[in-house]
Design brief:
The structure is a single chain. The protein has 26 helices and 24 strands. Helix content is 53%, strand content 20%. Helix 1 packs antiparallel against helix 8, helix 11 packs across helix 12 and helix 14 crosses helix 15. The radius of gyration is 56 Å and the shape is elongated. Keywords: Membrane, Transmembrane, Transmembrane helix.
Length: 721
C-alpha cells in the first residue's frame, strides 16, 4: 500500500470521532427540541385545564347570583300591584343583611343603569296574575367578580378577566383593569371572539410583555372568560433545563475538540515518526527498501523503461571487517557509502540500503559507459575517504546492474532488483572493485533456476530426492566405518541427477529448504530403523539442518517426534549445524542444544575453520563434535603452519571433550598426519565418495573397515553422482 493511501486512511479514521460527535450533538439537539415541544404541549394542556376550571368557578358564581335574583323575584311573585309599591323598601332592608352583591328594584327596565359598570344582571318580577311588577338588578357585580377572579389559579401571576361579546371589560383580577381596557386589547379580544368559541393566542399586556392567552365562553350573557399566563414565569422551569443542557453541550464540545486536537497532534506526530521508521534506514538515514520500491514505482510508472537501470552494490568481505575492526567501524563505512551515493547521484537517482552492506538504486542513463564512469567515480571517492580512515583493510565495492527493457514494465521491483543482485553475485568472486551487467548468460541461469524452483515442491511429493551417504572412518580405531553423513541428490526426470550446489541455495531463498530437511531426516530415520531391525550393529548417521529449519519453533519437537516414531536409540542420530546458524545468539543456541541432548541427539559444528569466529564458538557452545574443513586449510601456502593450526585445534577440542572429524581429506599423507594429531574421524575421497544408500548398506555388509589403500575399491563401489 502506498504512503498516500495510508494517509487517506488515517484522515478517514480521524474523521470518525468528529462524525460521531456531530451525530451525538444532533441527537442532543433533537431531544432538546422534543422536550421543548413536549413541555409546550403539557403547558398548553395545563393552561386549558386551568381555564376550564376557572370557567366553571366563575360561571357557577354568576349562575348562583342569577339564581338568587330569581329566588327573590319568585318570593315577590304573589304580590299585587298595590303591594308592589313596597318592593323598594323591602329590597333596601334586604340589602342591609346581605354582604357582597347589592340588589335593587326598578319598575321599568333602566338601560342607563344597565350600561353602568356595576349592573349587569337583571330578573323580571311578575305579580299574582303574572303581570310585570318591575325588575330586580344585581349591583356591585364587578366588585364581586374581581374578588372572585383574584382567587383563581394563576390569578396572582397572570390575568382572569370577563369580557362581553363586543370586547368590553366586565371584571378582572388584580389591578389590571387599565391594561385590559385599552382599545388595542379590546380589538384583540373582539378579534379572538370572532374566530371561534375557544381560542389561544399571545397578548402584549402592560409591562409584562407577551402572555399566553386563552379565551373561552362563559355561556352567560354572551360573556367570555380570558385567562393569561406569563411565559417568563411559567416557562422558566424548562428554559433553565434547556440552557443547562445547552451549556453542557457547549462545554462537552469544547472539551471534545480540545482532546481531539491534542490527540490529532499526537497521532500526527506518531504517524510521522512511524513513517520515518518504516521508510528510513535507521543507520544511514537514507531510504530503506520499502521506500525505494514506492519511489521507483512512481518514477517508472510513466517513464521510458529503456533509459533506466537498477543497480545492486555491496562491500566485499564486510563480515570480516565487522569481526576484525568491530561493528562501529562497519557502521561508519555504511554511513560513508550512503553519503557518497547521495553526493555522486546522477539523473533521476534514488537509492536505499536493502540490508547489512547491501545497497540498491535506480537511475536514468544515456549509455552503459556513463554507468561505468559513475561507478568508477564512486569507487575513487570511497577509496580516498577510506585510505585516511582505515589503513588496515582494503575495502572493495562490487556492483551489478540490470538495464530495464520495455517488457519489464509489468515486472515487480523485487524481481528487477534481484536480477541486479544476481549480476553482482556473479562477479563478486573476481578480485578488486567489480562492476558488471546482467547479461544473457546470467539470464539463462535465472531461467534455469526458475524452472528448478517450479519443480521443487512437486519433486518432494514425488520422492525424487534420494539419500546419498559418505562414510565416516574412525582412524583411531583401525579405520572402522563409524557411520556416515546423509547427503541429497535430486533425480530429476528431465535433467537426470542434480547436485546440491544447483538447488540448495534456491530452496533456501524460496523457503522450501525446511520441507527438504524434514523429508530427508524422516527418510534417514526410516532406513536406520529398518537397518537396526534387521539385526545390524548400531551406526551413527549425521543429517544436515538448515538455518531456516533450526529457527522454527517446532524444530526440537518435530525432530524428537520422528526419532521416537522410528524408535531410534539415543546417540545414533547426529544433527549438523553450520557456523552461520550459531553466530546470532550463543545463549539461544546452547538452550536448543540442551533440549536436543535431552532427546538423545548428537550435535556437531560443520565447516569449522571456514569462518572468522570459530574459536569463540568452540569456547562458548556445548557441542559434541567439530568437523574441520580441511579444504579451507589447503588454501595456505605453508603446510607446516597449516598443520600447527590444525593440531592445536584438535588438542583444544580434546581438552574440551569434543570429538573431531576432518572432511574433504584426499591424500594418504594427510590421513597419517591427522591420525598422529589425534583426529577421531575422517570423511573424504581418500576413503570413499558419497554413494547411494543402497551402496552404503552393501559396503557395511561387506566390510567394517577401510584404509587409504582401499581407495580404489571404495571408488569402484560408488557411482560418480
Amino acid at each position: 500500500m502506498h504512503m498516500r493511501e495510508n494517509i487517506r486512511i488515517k484522515k478517514f479514521d480521524m474523521a470518525i470521532p468528529v462524525l460521531l460527535w456531530l451525530f451525538l450533538i444532533i441527537c442532543c439537539i433533537s431531544f432538546l427540541l422534543y422536550m421543548v415541544q413536549k413541555n409546550d404541549k403539557e403547558n398548553n394542556d395545563y393552561y386549558n385545564s386551568v381555564s376550564k376550571q376557572n370557567q366553571l368557578t366563575v360561571k357557577g358564581r354568576i349562575e348562583g347570583d342569577i339564581h338568587l335574583l330569581k329566588t327573590i323575584a319568585a318570593g315577590f311573585g304573589g304580590m299585587d300591584s298595590d303591594h308592589a309599591r313596597e318592593l323598594p323598601d323591602i329590597v333596601s332592608r334586604m340589602n342591609l343583611s346581605m354582604e357582597g352583591m347589592r340588589v335593587e328594584y326598578s319598575r321599568q327596565l333602566d338601560w342607563t343603569r344597565l350600561d353602568r359598570e356595576d349592573y349587569y344582571l337583571n330578573v323580571l318580577v311578575r305579580g299574582n296574575e303574572n303581570q310585570p311588577l318591575g325588575y330586580l338588578y344585581a349591583g356591585n357585580v364587578r366588585h364581586v367578580l374581581n374578588g372572585l377572579l383574584n382567587t383563581q389559579i394563576y390569578a396572582s401571576l397572570g390575568i382572569c378577566a370577563v369580557f362581553d361579546n363586543r370586547g368590553n371589560l366586565i371584571a378582572a383580577s388584580g389591578n389590571r383593569n387599565d391594561d385590559l381596557a385599552r382599545s388595542d386589547i379590546k380589538n384583540k379580544i373582539y378579534d379572538m371572539i370572532s374566530k371561534g368559541q375557544q381560542t389561544s393566542s399571545e397578548l402584549e399586556i402592560g409591562v409584562r410583555g407577551q402572555e399566553h392567552a386563552i379565551l373561552i365562553p362563559l355561556e352567560i350573557n354572551d360573556w367570555y372568560l380570558l385567562n393569561t399566563f406569563p411565559r417568563s414565569d411559567l416557562e422558566i422551569r424548562y428554559m433553565e433545563t434547556t440552557v443547562g443542557i445547552g451549556i453542557l453541550i457547549l462545554l462537552s464540545s469544547g472539551l471534545f475538540f480540545l482532546f481531539y486536537f491534542r490527540q490529532y497532534r499526537t497521532i500526527a506526530a506518531n504517524h510521522k515518526t512511524l513513517v520515518n521508521i518504516a521508510y528510513t534506514d535507521s543507520l544511514t538515514r537514507c531510504h530503506n527498501f520499502y521506500a525505494f520500491k514506492e519511489e521507483a514505482e512512481r518514477i517508472l510508472k510513466n517513464a521510458d523503461m529503456k533509459s533506466y537501470a537498477v543497480w545492486y552494490c555491496d562491500i566485499k568481505k564486510f563480515k570480516f571487517i565487522n569481526d576484525v575492526l568491530g561493528y562501529e567501524e562497519g557502521d561508519r563505512i555504511l554511513i560513508t557509502i550512503a553519503n557518497l551515493l547521495q553526493k555522486c547521484s546522477i539523473q533521476n537517482f534514488v537509492f536505499c540500503r536493502v540490508s547489512a552492506d547491501n545497497f540498491a538504486g535506480l537511475c536514468q542513463y544515456e549509455s552503459r559507459t556513463e554507468l561505468k564512469n559513475w561507478f568508477q567515480k564512486l569507487v575513487q571517492a570511497f577509496r580516498q575517504q577510506e585510505l585516511s580512515n582505515n589503513k588496515r583493510i582494503a575495502t572493495e565495492l562490487c556492483m551489478g546492474v540490470y538495464c530495464l527493457e520495455e517488457e519489464d514494465r509489468n515486472v515487480s521491483i523485487d524481481n528487477i532488483v534481484n536480477r541486479a543482485n544476481i549480476a553482482q553475485k556473479y562477479i563478486k568472486s573476481l578480485p578488486g572493485d567489480q562492476f558488471g551487467f546482467y547479461n544473457k548468460e546470467i539470464r539463462d541461469k535465472v531461467v534455469d533456476e526458475s524452472e528448478l524452483e517450479s519443480e521443487m515442491e512437486g519433486a518432494i511429493e514425488r520422492q525424487e530426492f534420494r539419500i546419498f551417504v559418505q562414510p565416516k572412518i574412525s582412524i583411531q580405531n583401525h579405520n572402522r566405518i563409524a557411520g556416515g553423513e546423509v547427503l541429497v541428490r535430486w533425480e530429476n526426470p528431465r535433467r537426470g541427477t542434480i547436485l546440491p550446489g544447483q538447488f540448495i541455495s534456491i530452496m533456501e531463498r524460496e523457503g522450501k529448504i525446511i520441507l527438504l530437511d524434514r523429508y530427508m531426516f524422516e527418510l534417514s530415520c526410516k532406513w536406520l530403523h529398518e537397518y537396526l531391525q534387521s539385526g545390524n550393529p548400531p551406526i551413527n548417521l549425521a543429517v544436515n539442518v538448515s538455518k531456516m529449519g533450526i529457527l522454527r519453533e517446532d524444530f526440537v519437537d518435530y525432530y524428537g517426534s520422528i526419532k521416537e516414531k522410528y524408535e531410534i536409540p539415543d546417540g545414533l542420530l547426529e544433527l549438523e549445524f553450520t557456523e552461520t546458524v550459531m553466530l546470532s545468539d550463543d545463549t539461544v543456541f546452547n538452550g536448543l542444544v540442551a533440549k536436543l541432548h535431552e532427546k538423545g541427539f548428537i550435535c556437531s559444528l560443520d565447516d569449522f575453520g571456514a569462518g572468522y569466529s570459530s574459536l569463540n564458538l568452540l569456547k562458548n557452545l556445548s557441542i559434541d563434535i567439530v568437523k574441520l574443513d580441511i579444504m579451507f586449510f589447503r588454501k595456505s601456502n605453508d603446510i607446516r603452519r597449516e598443520r600447527i593450526v590444525i593440531s592445536n585445534i584438535i588438542n583444544m577440542a580434546k581438552e574440551l571433550h569434543i570429538k573431531t572429524i576432518a572432511e574433504g581429506v584426499e591424500f594418504t599423507e594427510t590421513v597419517e598426519f591427522l591420525k598422529s594429531a589425534g583426529c577421531d574421524i575422517i570423511q573424504g575421497y581418500v576413503f570413499a565418495r558419497p554413494m547411494p544408500l543402497e551402496d552404503f548398506e552393501r559396503l557395511l555388509g561387506e566390510t567394517i573397515s577401510l584404509s587409504p589403500a582401499d581407495e580404489n575399491k571404495a571408488v569402484n563401489i560408488c557411482t560418480e553422482k
